[in-house]
Structure formats: C-alpha cells, structure tokens
Amino acid sequence: MACLSDESWVTLPKMLSERLSLSGDRDEEEKKSFVDSKTTQYRLEKVFPLYAMGISRPDSDSVLSAGNLGDPVSDPIWDAVTEEAKLEAEKEPILSSFLYASILSHDCLEQALGFVLANRLQNPTLLATQLMDIFCNVILHDTGIQRSIRLDMQAFKDRDPACLSYCSVLLYLKGYHSLQVYRVAHALWSQGRKVLALALQSRISEVFGVDIHPAAKIGEGILLDHGTGVVIGETAVVGNRVSLMHGVTLGGTGKEVGDRHPKVGEGALIGASVTILGNIKIGKGAMVAAGSLVLKDIPPHSMVAGIPAKVIGYVAEQDPSLTMKHDATKEFFQHVAVNSKDGRSTGAQDREKK
Questions:
Q1: Partners of 8 in the beta sheet?
Q2: Which residue did the predictor score with more confidence, 178 or 255?
Q3: Cα separation of 206 and 208, whole Å?
Q4: 322 conformational bin, left if phi > 0, alpha if psi -120 to 50, beta if neither
Q5: Which of 24, 97, 284, 328 allows an S-S link to 289, with CB 3.0 to 4.6 Å?
Q6: What is the pLDDT of residue 256?
Q7: CB under 8 Å to 85, separation ≥6 — which residues?
Q8: Could you report how far apart the first and last alpha carbons of the chain are, in Å?
Q9: What are the DSSP calls for 37-102, one per residue?
Q10: Where are the domains of the chain?
C-alpha cells in the first residue's frame, strides 16, 4: 500500500500522446505508452508544469520504511483507481490531462490524494505546492491514515449508490475530501501544530461546507454522504463504520468547557439533518431518523426519531451504517399518530370538564 513505482502505463488517448510530443517524428511504440525515461519525463514536464505535477516522487525505500506496510505491490484500491482513470481517459479525451495530473502521474494513492486535496483547498496565500508538501509529509509517515483513507474510500464505494467508482471518490466527492483533510489536521493537532490544523479546518469549512474540529476523534470506514452542513465538535467521538448523512450536527449545549460533545458508537447510522447535542452516547448500531433532535443517550441497536428523539423500535442489522436502510417513515408516523391522537383526546376531555 506504499508508493509504488509503475514501470509502464496503459495507453492514454491519442490526443494526449500528441500533446506530449516534442516533434512529429515519434515512432508507434512511443505513441502507445509512456516510458519511464528522461526524454518522456521532459515531455511530461512541458505539458504538466511543476505546480501540476506536484512534489517530486519520494524514495520508495523511505516510504516503505516509514509505512512499514509489508508487500509494496499489494494495494487493490490504488490498482482500481488507476485502471478506472485510464479507462475514463480513453472514454473522455478532454479529461486526459486532468486524469493524468491527478492520478496517473503519481506512484500511490497517498500522493494522488495529496495532489487532489491541495488543488481543492489552495488559495492565493496558501499555495497548492505548500499544501501538497503538508499532506504528503503527514500521510506518508502515518500508517493509520494510510489505512483509513482506503477504508473510507471502500465505505463510499459500498454504501453510496450514486458513487460510480473508486476514481470518482478520489476526484469528486467532497465528503471524502473533507474527511481526509480532517485526518491530516488531526495528526497535526496531535503533534502540537494547532495553528496549522485550525487553518486546514477553516479551509475545509470554506471550500466544502463541512466543519470538523481537528481535535475530534473519528474512526475508519466512515461515510460522510454529501457532507454539506456536517458539524463535528472538538470533543466528539465517532466510532468505526459510522455513516453520517448531510446536515448532521454533533454539538455542545452551551458555553461549558471540557468533554461536551456526543459519542457515536460503531456502526451507527445518523440520518440527514440530525442534531445531537451534549456529552451523550449514541449506542453501537443505533439508527437515528432524519431530522431528529437527540438530547439523551440512545441504547445500542435502537431506532429513534422525533423532536426530541424517542425510541420507536430496534434494528435487526448489527451495523445499520453498512446497509444504509434508514427509512423509518412507517414506524415514525405510527408513533406520531398515536401521540397526536392521545393529545387531541386529552384536550377534548379537558374542555368538557371546563
């Protein structure tokens, strides 16, 4: 899973090959593949300047030593990403340069992710080259993040029916981008580099509309579906394999300090626009219906809905976050109907007594 040195490239579209040519006298073999040579490297640099190509490739031995990941050729996620990118480049020639610069010019998922994130978050005073240095330096020396970026990508691919491919997760899904920048910011926060971590948090909020405090603790295999409007507070904890829909808030209840944010158990599914406030626990495998307001602890594997949220049933799945079955409509409206009927009945009786 560390950076790999790919000795050959599958054919990119003819248009890209022609753009890489310094002269019209290229033989057929050069038109069909990118050969790892000084001549080809010079041609690539002419088309993709330094700022597009990213930082220089790190030494493979140092990356493997830092990652301690064992077999350097075993990375099915990265293999899938590159194969999909090559196919997309053939189907959409206009995206060839974009796909090459974002994916195919890199040796590993870590580098490609760093490049994509840097280009998404750059601004006139925080340059893409600076950001890529930060991202790659953190990710390539943190095996935990290397594992998480792959498990998160798999989570998006498995649980989001709108996700077309691993490649699309890396390139386009801002929920995934927000999560991975948070992971880098969290590592920096843990190293005492809090100002830089907060700067990244600010850029995530500005660009993606997602606000995750770098001190929050988030597990792996996480899905931030859409991502828009998600807020996760400083002392919040999110367990492994959790799915969060858009508009979810894991917030505090006031100006108190210390441990003041929710703790979400493993495998929980939190629906769209759910608000969970205070230092409360959402049990393992719980499901919170969309639009609910949660103010107290939720038992494991329970289904809750309403304002304030109440238990309306229990889920059969061990991890509802994996099945993504969060349609509590029938049970919810039955619950509301019963309460509403009781309320009207009580009100009528009170009026009769008066």
A1: 35
A2: 178
A3: 6
A4: alpha
A5: 328
A6: 79
A7: 99, 102, 103, 104, 167
A8: 76
A9: SHHHHHHHHHHS-HHHH-SPPPPHHHHHHHH--S-TT--HHHHHHHHHHHHHHHH-GGGHHHHIII
A10: 1-210, 216-327
Alpha-carbon distance of 267 to 321, in angstroms, equals 5
Provide mean pLDDT across the span 101-108. 94
Compute how many other C-beta atoms are within 10 angstroms of the C-beta atom of residue 253: 12
Domain 1-210 bears CATH identifier 1.10.3130.10: yes
By mean pLDDT, which of 175-189, 234-248, 312-326 is the weakest? 312-326
d(CA 47, CA 34): 13
| Domain 216-327: homologous superfamily in CATH | Hexapeptide repeat proteins (2.160.10.10)
Q: What are the C-alpha distances in Å from 13 to residues 32, 56, 96, 147?
A: 9, 25, 7, 33
CA separation for the pair 65, 78 (Å, rounded)? 19
Indicate the residue type of 108.
Answer: C
Identify whether the C-beta of residue 311 lies closer than 8 Å to the C-beta of residue 296.
no
Beta carbons within 8 Å of 329's beta carbon, 6+ residues apart = none
Closest CA to 56 of 122, 7, 129, 125: 129
Both tokens assigned to 150: 């792959």
Cα angle value 63/136/180 (rounded, 5°): 120
Could you check whether the bond before residue 308 is cis, i.e. omega within 30 degrees of 0? Answer: yes
More confident residue, 1 or 54: 1
| 305 in Cβ contact with 289 (< 8 Å) | yes
d(CA 94, CA 106): 20
φ, ψ (nearest 5 deg) of residue 346: -65, -40
**Which residues, at least 6 apart from 129, have a Cβ–Cβ distance to it below 8 Å?**
50, 51, 54, 55, 118
pLDDT of residue 3: 64
Digit-coded pLDDT (tens) for 265-322? 999 999 999 999 999 999 999 999 999 999 999 999 999 999 999 999 888 777 777 7
Pairing of strands 231-232, 293-294: unpaired
Per-residue tokens: 61: 């031995």
Which tokens go with 30? 């050069």
Dihedrals φ, ψ of 99, to 5°? Answer: -70, -35
Q: How far apart are CA 250 and CA 239, in angstroms?
A: 13
